[in-house]
Amino acid sequence: MHIHEDIELCDHKEIHTELLKHVNDTLPEENQLYDLAELFKTFGDSTRIRILFVLFEAEVCVCDIAEALHMTQSAISHQLRILKQSKLIKSRREGKSIFYSLADEHVKTIIAQGMEHILEDR
Amino acid sequence: MHIHEDIELCDHKEIHTELLKHVNDTLPEENQLYDLAELFKTFGDSTRIRILFVLFEAEVCVCDIAEALHMTQSAISHQLRILKQSKLIKSRREGKSIFYSLADEHVKTIIAQGMEHILEDR
DNA sequence: TAAACATATGAGCATTTATTCATATATTGA
DNA sequence: TCAATATATGAATAAATGCTCATATGTTTA
């Protein structure tokens, strides 16, 4: 986190005062902006993206994800924790295993939109 | 970037072989997953989110963004570079100023979905 | 052409982050 | 209750990231 200090301005102050006021009015609250950035941060790692793609197919346990992605149980477990904190996935215990699945439909929508964007040119 | 090594498996191998095969077939290519994560990484910073919200309102120059967000021109410029690399924004020179605007509608859709998600509970 | 202005960029630094390793917790079955 | 299995977690480390500062590039105007 960084602290924003007051800063030099550019020349056309009078001209854009209106706009700046408007921006100030429409900008979401600080903690909403923060939460939004945190949410996208969660999508911003290819391991977590891969985990989500696995969960698109089925509800699976940790060791299956680890196997599917050729990664250690520990690494996957750490990432599942982050995905769960962002409420992108949920879990359910069944005996010794814990099964993970997608929390809601936003996950798919967001990833689908992202996919569209990166595929747009080419 | 990290290298994924082969890993211990869990017990029910035979049971989930089918699933693992399916996941393997449906997982996007490595570089698509990478690009997707990179895209979301771009959204995953509150300064860049703020910049995008400013651009939702109007096409503006660098110094206006800096002023609106109370940050230095340099900090904003560095972030604009990242947003542009991800093709979320585009720029246009007009005299000494460079005006930035949103590149396409995906930006709004993605942020709107993210907003819905974080506002879902509470 | 020189000075002023707007923006971009490279180096440096502090912070965050993803993985590994070791180990803790929880559940089942003998 | 003890061993085996599945998962979670804390500490450590290497890599990535966002900002600042100094300065470079590009444009306009005197």
General description of the model:
- The structure is a homodimer of 122-residue chains.
- Chain A is mostly helical.
- Chain A has one domain: Arc Repressor Mutant, subunit A (Orthogonal Bundle), CATH 1.10.10.
- In chain A, 61% of the residues lie in helices and 11% in strands.
- The first copy, chain A, contains 6 helices and 3 strands, in the order H-H-H-E-H-H-E-E-H.
- Chain A has helices at residues 13-26, 30-43, 46-57, 62-69, 73-85, 106-119; strands spanning 60-61, 89-94, 97-102.
- The first copy, chain A, has a 3-stranded antiparallel β-sheet with strand order 1-3-2.
- In chain A, helix 4 (62-69) crosses helix 5.
- Chain A is elongated, with a radius of gyration of 20 Å.
- The relative contact order of chain A is 0.10.
- The model of chain A is unreliable at 1-8 (pLDDT under 50).
- The interface between A and B is large, with 69 and 68 residues.
- Chain A binds a DNA duplex (30 and 30 nucleotides) through residues 1-2, 10-11, 41, 45, 47, 61-63, 71-81, 93, 95-98.
